[in-house]
Amino acid sequence: MRPLQFERSRGDISPTINSARVKYLATRSVSSGVRPEIAKSWQRSRASGFVSTTADWAPVHSPPDKCGLSRAFDQELRSRLATLDHLRLMAILVDRGSVVVSHYGLPDAARNPQLLRFGGLPPIGSSLSEASIGTHAANMALESGGPEQVVGHEHLHERYLGTHSIAIPIISPTTQRTAGALVIENAMPASALLLPWASEIAAAMRQSLRQDSNEREMLLMRDFLSARAANRRPVICLNQQTLLCNVGASRLLGGGDQATLWEYASQFLMGERPDTAVLTLTNAGPQHARFERIPGRDGPVGVRITLRPRKDRPASGRLRPSSGSGLTCSLPGKSRRWNRLLEDLQSARSSSDRVVLVGESGTGKRHIARALVPSDALEVDCSAEAEMLQLLRQRRSAPCPLIVTHLERLSDAAMAEVEEIVLGDQHHEAPVVLTLTEVCGEAARLTQRGTGVGPWVRVPALRDRLDDLPDLVAEMTASRTEAGREPVRWLPDALQVLARVDWPENLRSLESVVDGVARRCQTGYVDSRQLPDGVQARAAGRQLTRLEQLEISELLASLRESDGNKFAAAQRLGIARSTLYRRMRSLGLDLALVNY
Largest Cα–Cα distance in the chain? Predict the structure, then answer.
């Protein structure tokens, strides 16, 4: 962690910083006299969408719920109100998303006019992110994970030009992740007292959080032990950080199921879901689940889930291999689009011994092809045109199962010979699967030529089956985990970020990111902060189509008219609530959205 050095020379009256700020806003060019961390924050602010240096606070419709972090903040600051007023300070608490959760201290205008003149006290629920207000100690501390200070004209927003802000991140004692940040502000000139005073408050808050966490975790553990002793069914007790389960439940859960369970549980706690539901788990399929609150001193400390199998359990969405094959397709799925693909494949296989798989690059066509043919099938790439044609010619006398990839790379003459050979052979015991990557109009060109080697089945792109993302990530993680080790768990916020990204190579791009993150992970779980910077940037700045922009407008309008109630918003739109959540994730709208 980089130590914070107080520098009195960087004040509001510094002509160097003032001219550098003006120059950057006009030209986006950073002068040499600007601190490197400030320069990076300026650049991040512009990249994330910060434009106006005079914009007012965005309207707030629904303040964030009180949590352990805000309780610790309130407890410490109530006893320090006199000191806040004497030192002319403001104390602000933001969560890890830079949303203001609580604040204290508003000195009177006679002693501290600067903070009042520019509306320095942010409303509860407003955002201190770089996209909203530009460079500020709060968003810098959340970004770096260490204490930060911003002085005077190092801020981009005019509201803070006469302000000195210091922020210290607050680390959760249970997850060791950044839970939020404590912000202390005063008017210029910059004061050396801010850092030690803020550090003292942050240390007291961490101690309070530790005590609160120990109490809540103890209540969660006691409830789990009691439920396990009294119930033979699979039982799970969980909160946002912890999942406890008995042996029966552990056999049913896969790597991505914690995200699904907590999404249901959190909606149940908010009254948005009933106390019973049917959940589809990775290793068990549909299960009847009953939800019960685990009471604590200041509200529920978690949720108890009791599972029982669903008697009318449908067939698994995992693609099974053809008879006699020892292979299984490593592409799990249970979305509507994936189930439609399975139906199309079944129909194609029943009507012909030849199938053409069509789809974008990286959608998993080869994985699916391997599940459609026996394990002794040969595979040949059309890039080696002569070798492929020779293999097909030999197949006339010695039929064998065959996978032919990248059909689009064939010349017209070679394609004509492939059609002649494949159409002339009828070997049901030796099926042929061909793949065609839909690029540069090749699929359309081959269709116009009348290619008839077999029925075509279109493989969906990842963006069309985002419901399968948790299962895909869990499968990719498990396949790369060494024997005897538990796969790392992907937390809901990380999966939510992944769902917002455009994956140009579909599963291949996703697999590369999952592999790199899982190999570097040392904690046993992956949250959004452990994702590569490039992935987080792409998730935040994904280019939306005109249709998607219109869809966002409709979603936000419905949420605004429903005062944030997602169930009511879904009813207004005439869609299921699960569809609303899925579209919000795919369009980059936070499920905990409070600013409309």
Answer: 98
Q: How deeply is 275 buried, as exposed, middle or buried, from its count of CB atoms within 10 A (0-12, 13-18, 19+)? A: exposed
Q: What DSSP line would sit under 395-418, residue for residue?
A: HTTS---EEEE-GGGS-HHHHHHH
What's the pLDDT tens digit per position in 230-269? Answer: 878 899 998 877 788 888 888 787 766 777 787 788 888 8
The least confident of 129-138, 296-305, 440-449, 475-484 is 440-449
What 3-state class would DSSP assign to 213? helix
Structure tokens at 28: 């986006």
How much is the CA Rg of the chain, to the nearest whole Å?
A: 29
CB within 8 Å of 585: residues ≥ 6 apart: 466, 496, 499, 500, 591
Whole-angstrom distance, CA of residue 594 vs CA of residue 97: 11
175: exposed, middle or buried (Cβ count in 10 Å: 0-12, 13-18, 19+): middle
What whole-number distance in Å separates Cα of residue 243 and Cα of residue 256?
13
What's the number of CA atoms in the CB half-sphere (13 Å) around residue 494? 26
Q: How far from 518 is each of 331, 469, 510, 511, CA to CA, in Å?
A: 18, 16, 12, 10
What is the rounded distance in angstroms from the CA atom of residue 136 to the CA atom of residue 153? 11
3-state secondary structure of 587: coil
How confident is the model over 93-107, as pLDDT tens digits? 988 888 888 888 765
Identify the three-state secondary structure at position 244: strand
Q: Which two tokens stand for residue 71?
A: 């309780």
Beta-bridged to residue 184, according to DSSP, are 91, 166
3-state SS assignment for residue 190:
coil
Per the CB < 8 A criterion, the answer to whether 303 and 294 are in contact is yes
Amino acid identity, residue 314?
Answer: P
Verdict on whether the full-model pTM lies above 0.70: no
